[in-house]
Amino acid sequence: MSDLRIGIVGVGAMGADHAERIVRRISGARLVAVSDPDTARAEELAVRLSGGGPAGGSAAAGAGAAGGAVRVIGDPLELVGAREVDAVILASPGFAHAEQLFACLEHGKPVLCEKPLTMDAASSLQVVEAEHKLGKPLIQVGFMRRFDPEYAALKQLLDSGELGRPLLLHNVHRNKANGPGFRSEMIVRDSMVHEVDVARWLFGSEISRITVHAPKPTGAVPDGVLDPQFAVFELANGAMADVEVFVNFQVGYEVRCEAVAERGSATIGLGSGVVTRAAGHWGGAVPEDFRVRFDLAYDIEVQRWIDAVGRGEIDGPSAWDGYAAAAVCEAGIASLNSGQPVAVDLADRRTVLG
Ligand SMILES: NC(=O)c1ccc[n+]([C@@H]2O[C@H](COP(=O)([O-])OP(=O)(O)OC[C@H]3O[C@@H](n4cnc5c(N)ncnc54)[C@H](O)[C@@H]3O)[C@@H](O)[C@H]2O)c1
């Protein structure tokens, strides 16, 4: 079977990371096109990953050992429709996803869309409905923690029933620092959204109510920014989850969680991989960011997506999962603003998907 030809929209941190992954580590796929309003960034990436210099126009040719020519296409929607692109990775900012997802659906192109699916629950639901009308799943959402070996092992353990019924999930999510434009609601929509998906997935239940609290903020953020935040999720099956999200922790990237069930608990993300004893100290390294901690999860996510697309399927979080997370985050932002618990307004899955 010939390689799946991938186009990437948005080649900032995440898109460039996926581009490297496709070219250097993934089998069954090759990168053929990139698009980014920052054309210099797109050109640089295309040239680097084409393994040679630009061959004229905006196409970076020069067949490299790594995988052939990568074309720079100015308009993201043109990339989606391009005949040489079989499937798309959307790594543009969340505000651009809705229009680009609809274009993927219109052209019948499978798409791996980085989270968030879209910026609000209403547009996410429209995406779910539009995909459903086509009668085949084309959208997979980039909740990559589901592919992390530690999270996957925890899910398997909980599903096995060995620990009994899951009751509680404690989550910690810390980043080293965030840029000056970061606002309080982005902590919910861009960071906490991962724990929203993790809680729904691990416990196999929708979140019906969310409360987001904010203690007195760290001195590391400008006035008005609420960081850290502490949220409580109430799940429809009666379980509960809490999450601390602290995106200006200063130290490094730290994600861990503990599931508590009737007959035991299980913890992942302790970061105790390699512990050294030297020069009078012992310890390990704190990852700088998510790309280091979840590198393997992204590789597994993308490889499984490529393999599934070859079979005409998806193999991971669906558009519905993206919509459900958007609905929870919308309620979370309302709770952050009001200080009160907010019920999640989620459409009935059977009504929407039949
Ligand atoms: N799964 C994860 O762990 C994870 C981690 C980080 C980011 N993300 C998600 O990935 C996406 C990109 O985040 P990032 O950190 O790479 O951001 P970034 O700012 O580093 O890169 C975004 C890129 O998109 C380009 N861009 C801007 N508007 C665009 C448009 N309309 N169409 C196409 N490209 C456009 C920008 O020029 C930039 O190069 C976001 O949806 C983000 O939430 C996911």
TrEMBL record:
Signal peptide: none annotated. SUPFAM superfamilies: Glyceraldehyde-3-phosphate dehydrogenase-like, C-terminal domain, NAD(P)-binding Rossmann-fold domains. Its EC number is 1.1.1.18. Pfam families: GFO_IDH_MocA (PF01408), GFO_IDH_MocA_C3 (PF22725). The keyword Membrane does not apply. Residues 151-266 form the GFO/IDH/MocA-like oxidoreductase domain. It is an enzyme of class 1 (oxidoreductase). InterPro entries: Gfo-Idh-MocA_inositol_DH, Gfo/Idh/MocA-like_OxRdtase_N, GFO_IDH_MocA-like_dom, MI/DCI_dehydrogenase, NAD(P)-bd_dom_sf. One of its GO terms (molecular function) is nucleotide binding. One of its GO terms (biological process) is inositol catabolic process. It catalyses: myo-inositol + NAD(+) = scyllo-inosose + NADH + H(+). Keywords: NAD, Oxidoreductase. Residues 4-142 form the Gfo/Idh/MocA-like oxidoreductase N-terminal domain. Belongs to the Gfo/Idh/MocA family. Homotetramer. HAMAP family: IolG. This is Inositol 2-dehydrogenase. It comes from Kribbella sandramycini.
